[in-house]
Structures are given as structure tokens and as C-alpha cells.
């Protein structure tokens, strides 16, 4: 099983929620998972109903079986200060550079360097070991940038090649790529059963494959239940007013004549959605990747809903 699980998806598909639920699912039976955020939105803190995370690894949840979930919101500026201390032993000089604005310049003007720092911090957590020789974390889950930027974000070696041919930055980028392009990593894409998210997923998978980055699974989020079976869906396409009115009357519903039109309209809308979802499932099926579906969990998302999704993911075996 891949130890670095990268989760991406078009905006609005719930990728952060899925990443958090996946971290919980992987942390069962006493395992330790690190959930990493790289976009500075503090979305993970909101999901777990806690205050904004500082730049440190912090325990945020306990999974069934005693497992633990830690979280880290990676800050590019702080990561660069760590990097300067690690490779150049700058210490206080690094803090002085921050005051002069050099750190902000490096992480803003040179986005390739910024991505090396962000991905590098996650990869360091994947490789880190305890004094006893065991991995510090069994899994690292990254809440990554959206699908449209994921390949460029992960393919940091190409981004940095034009900036640094040799030296620590170059070596760091290559070390990161050795993790990202290895079986240790899997990149999952989250989508909805709607045309635009599905098309972006198809394009994203093609880009990942073109960059030789390891694709994982497609996770279809917020799937609504079908309230009508196939025969009922097909039955709303014709003129069914009289039959529906009679059925309502037999069921003891008063004022059935007034209910027929809105009921048939709702049924037709449902039938249209079912057909659209069928078409989008067929498109996803052409990708040749395992595809899993998560249910729509009410309005909004709370901790109970997050744990429910974690249970769904665990039963589906998404992290395997």
C-alpha cells in the first residue's frame, strides 16, 4: 500500500473532506497518519472543528482501534527557513532574510522552489523514522492543489530544472521526485457525477500519466441515492397523469389531482439526473482505474459525517 496518499480534485468536489476522511480511515488499528495541507486555507482545522494549526505536527483525532491522526499546515516561508537551516546552517541569518523580504520573494517569484518546499516537507515525513528504526507515520495524506494544478505541483523536478542545475535545491527536487514517482505514492482524484468535474478528472489523469506520476483511484463524492428504480424512471417519460392520479387515490391521498403535475415534474428531473450520472460513470469507466463512490452526507459536514465517510472508505478499501 502506498504510504503517501495525495488527494486532488476540482474545486467544490470535497477533496479536503475526502483527504481528512482517508486519513481517519488509514489510522485504524493503532496506526499513525499525518494529514498535510499545502494551500494555506486551514480547511482541515475547520473540518475537525479546531483552531487554526500552527506550523507544527499536531494530534487532531483518534481513529477506531486507537489509531492517531496528526495534522500539519505547511507554510512555504517557514519551510524555506527550515531548509536554509538544514542545508546552510543560517539560523538567525535566515530570520534576518525574512525581515528583509527575501523569503517572501523566493516563495512568490520562484513558484517552482515553493512547490519543492511544500512537497519536500511531505516527503520528509514519509521517509522519517524513529530512533527504533520504524517509520514515524504509517501513512501521510496530502490535501493537494486542485486537479488543474496537481501535475505541475507534483512534477517539481521539471519546474526547478531551469532554476538550479546543481546544489541543494536541485538535489532536494530529485529526492522529492524519487518519492513521488515511486510505488510509495498514489495520487487520487475526487470528482462528482457531473460533466465538468468528470472531464477535469479525465484531463488530470492524462496529465499525471504523461508526467509518469502514479495514479491511484477515482473517488466519486456526494453521490445522491436513487429514489426510483429503473422501471419507475422509464415510466415518467410518457403521459402518466391518469395512472398516477388513480394510484394516489387508491393510496388514500386527498387532492391527488393537484399533486400529479409536481410529482411527475420531480420524477422527470430525477430521471434526467439518473441518466446524466449513468453517462458520467461510463466516462470514468474508460480511465481504467478503480472507482469508488461516497454518499452525500446531509447538508454540510460535521465530525460525525467525517467519521461516517472514513468508515465508508475503510470498507471500500480505498487506501489499499
UniProtKB/TrEMBL annotation:
Q: Which domain of life is it from?
A: Bacteria
Segments passing through the bilayer: none
| UniProt domain ArsA/GET3 Anion-transporting ATPase-like: residue ranges | 5-180
Q: Which Gene3D superfamilies match?
A: P-loop containing nucleotide triphosphate hydrolases
- Pfam families registered for this protein in UniProt: ArsA_ATPase
Q: Read off the InterPro entries from this record.
A: ArsA/GET3_ATPase-like, ATPase_ArsA/GET3, P-loop_NTPase
Q: Name one GO molecular function term.
A: ATP binding
PANTHER family, alphabetically?
A: ARSENICAL PUMP-DRIVING ATPASE ARSENITE-TRANSLOCATING ATPASE, ATPASE RV3679-RELATED
Which protein are we looking at? ATPase
